Amino acid sequence: MSPKKRIAMHDHAAEASLFKRRALFTFLCVFILISILLSNLYQLQVVSFQDYETRSNDNRIRVVPVAPSRGLIYDRHGQLLAENQPFYTLEVIPEKTEDISASLDKLNEYIELSADERETITERLRYHRRFKPLTIKSRLTEEQVATFSVNQHQFPGFRVEAGLKRHYPYEGLMTHVLGYVGKINARDRTSLEKSGQWKNYAATNDIGKQGIEKYYESLLLGKPGHLEEEVNNRGRVIRTLKATPPTPGQDIYLTLDLKLQQKAMELLDGRRGSVVAIDPQDGGVLAMVSSPTYDPNLFVHGISTKAYSALLNDTSRPLINRATQGQYSPASTIKPHVALLGLEEKTITEKTRIWDPGFWQIPNVERKYRDWKRWGHGWVDVYSSIMDSCDTFFYDLAYKVGVDKMAAFMSKFGFGEPSGIDIYEEANGIMPSKDWKRMRYNQPWYIGDTISVGIGQGYWTTTPLQLTNAATILANRGTRFTPHLLKSFKDETSKIDTPIDEREPISLNDDNNWEIINEAMRRTAHKSRFTDATYTAAMKTGTAQVFSVAQDEKYDSDTIAEHLRDNALIIAYAPYENPKIVLAVVLENAGWGGVNAGPVARALLDEYMLRDEWKVAE
């Protein structure tokens, strides 16, 4: 018989101790986990509350920029030169259309879609969110808008959206002054980002490219507004929370006179050339015409490669602003300035006379510098030398004065440097000197170079704007203004005139020298082109050689290529006693200045001086 098993007795004390240890461990684990949870909750809800709230709002609220309307541009009399016109775009929301392909086929019956447009739409649909609008066709005509509106019930999900685009009502008339707006390219964006202006273009794809549009971009652009929209996690708009309207660009008023601009373009009649007119009382540009021109509206919606290539390859260079970028020999139009220098230097006096046999020679040199009048002008003084444009007189004067004195004196009139006008497209021109030639060509200066410069030929080149500005200083007897195009701008409450930039005047040793030169120009005008004018005027013509003719050869315009013929120039102002307008006309390859540029100047001064406003003022 097996012995009975003994019943083991529990050690209650040990079990109690084990339980306590386990309970304590469990409690510590729970405590630690709860502490971690509470710590994370505190971190999320207290410490990082602002950050996560912002992230949440970013996911919930979308800010949509709203484009401002671009400021308008007017002439000095309030005539609209650049406006904003509505344009229409046809869009579709794909999710609201059962069969978009069938809808496009049907749409083609009313609004023609090219094969390229259909292909582009199909390609974009692959990656486009179905609840967002997709552009089907832009730049709809009013007829297309009307046709679609009548039949819109047949196209669920389709709609017409309107916007504003720049429009130039006078097309090519103001192109080289106003410039144009175009699409922002990579270079524009880089520049805007560097200057910190990129945020202002959040709602627009356009920027001023040339002329006034570019120079006063900051005034014309305005500031974008925005819409705050609540969206779901898929980006679908639920509601609009807040709308901040954009600030429109400021309207600006230019110094230009539309009627004078139109008259100048009419007189150029498609010929290559330029007209610049300035108000001598403040330096405001009254007219600035460059011909031929082009329609800036082509660039607003994006010009085609074919159209741009045609402009770029046009031998008449319509893209160049001849008024500020065209560089021409000033020819005889600067003889009054050279004569003024001679009087100042006392190289000549009012009574100085020289004999003109039809040529002039450097002492001990055989070469003859011919006068335009081969048999000569006989005895000439400062008055007759300007009236008859005697080359011989100025050959002799230039030889005695020297090129460096000419360069220093002419620079005071703005030759050889930018005028400071408020557009970026401006050439410097060339006011030559001995140092200039050494730096440019690494060659010495010759006396023959001086002789050519003395009659506005040789290395000397100027722009029509510089020539007009120099004539304005002459008419003003030394008073100088920086030429400008902006007259005033309009903010939210009033029109603000821009300050006039009057520069330090040119002072002469003898102020009577101004009167001698201007009197010579008055006699020139009333001896020829302005004989029957009802107002007093002053002028000087010029005929600039485009290529050199040997001294034994005779210039014959009928036997040389058209692009090698002389340029025709004239400067003029009126009225003589108190000038209100100064102008310069340059006609490329037109021939004799007085015959070809003269009638243009006379017609323009008639247009301006015979207005009723002057009669009332008098």
Automatic annotation (TrEMBL):
<protein>
    <recommendedName>
        <fullName>Peptidoglycan D,D-transpeptidase MrdA</fullName>
        <ecNumber>3.4.16.4</ecNumber>
    </recommendedName>
</protein>
<keyword id="KW-0121">Carboxypeptidase</keyword>
<feature type="active site" description="Acyl-ester intermediate">
    <location>
        <position position="332"/>
    </location>
</feature>
<comment type="pathway">
    <text>Cell wall biogenesis; peptidoglycan biosynthesis.</text>
</comment>
<keyword id="KW-0961">Cell wall biogenesis/degradation</keyword>
<comment type="similarity">
    <text>Belongs to the transpeptidase family. MrdA subfamily.</text>
</comment>
<comment type="function">
    <text>Catalyzes cross-linking of the peptidoglycan cell wall.</text>
</comment>
<keyword id="KW-0472">Membrane</keyword>
<dbReference type="Pfam" id="PF00905">
    <property type="entry name" value="Transpeptidase"/>
</dbReference>
<dbReference type="InterPro" id="IPR001460">
    <property type="entry name" value="PCN-bd_Tpept"/>
</dbReference>
<dbReference type="InterPro" id="IPR012338">
    <property type="entry name" value="Beta-lactam/transpept-like"/>
</dbReference>
<dbReference type="InterPro" id="IPR005311">
    <property type="entry name" value="PBP_dimer"/>
</dbReference>
<dbReference type="InterPro" id="IPR050515">
    <property type="entry name" value="Beta-lactam/transpept"/>
</dbReference>
<keyword id="KW-0862">Zinc</keyword>
<keyword id="KW-0573">Peptidoglycan synthesis</keyword>
<feature type="binding site">
    <location>
        <position position="371"/>
    </location>
    <ligand>
        <name>Zn(2+)</name>
    </ligand>
</feature>
<dbReference type="InterPro" id="IPR036138">
    <property type="entry name" value="PBP_dimer_sf"/>
</dbReference>
<dbReference type="InterPro" id="IPR017790">
    <property type="entry name" value="Penicillin-binding_protein_2"/>
</dbReference>
<dbReference type="GO" id="GO:0009002">
    <property type="term" value="F:serine-type D-Ala-D-Ala carboxypeptidase activity"/>
</dbReference>
<feature type="domain" description="Penicillin-binding protein transpeptidase">
    <location>
        <begin position="273"/>
        <end position="605"/>
    </location>
</feature>
<keyword id="KW-0479">Metal-binding</keyword>
<keyword id="KW-0997">Cell inner membrane</keyword>
<feature type="binding site">
    <location>
        <position position="356"/>
    </location>
    <ligand>
        <name>Zn(2+)</name>
    </ligand>
</feature>
<keyword id="KW-0133">Cell shape</keyword>
<keyword id="KW-0378">Hydrolase</keyword>
<feature type="binding site">
    <location>
        <position position="377"/>
    </location>
    <ligand>
        <name>Zn(2+)</name>
    </ligand>
</feature>
<dbReference type="Pfam" id="PF03717">
    <property type="entry name" value="PBP_dimer"/>
</dbReference>
<keyword id="KW-0645">Protease</keyword>
<feature type="domain" description="Penicillin-binding protein dimerisation">
    <location>
        <begin position="66"/>
        <end position="241"/>
    </location>
</feature>
<feature type="binding site">
    <location>
        <position position="390"/>
    </location>
    <ligand>
        <name>Zn(2+)</name>
    </ligand>
</feature>
<keyword id="KW-1133">Transmembrane helix</keyword>
<keyword id="KW-1003">Cell membrane</keyword>
<keyword id="KW-0812">Transmembrane</keyword>
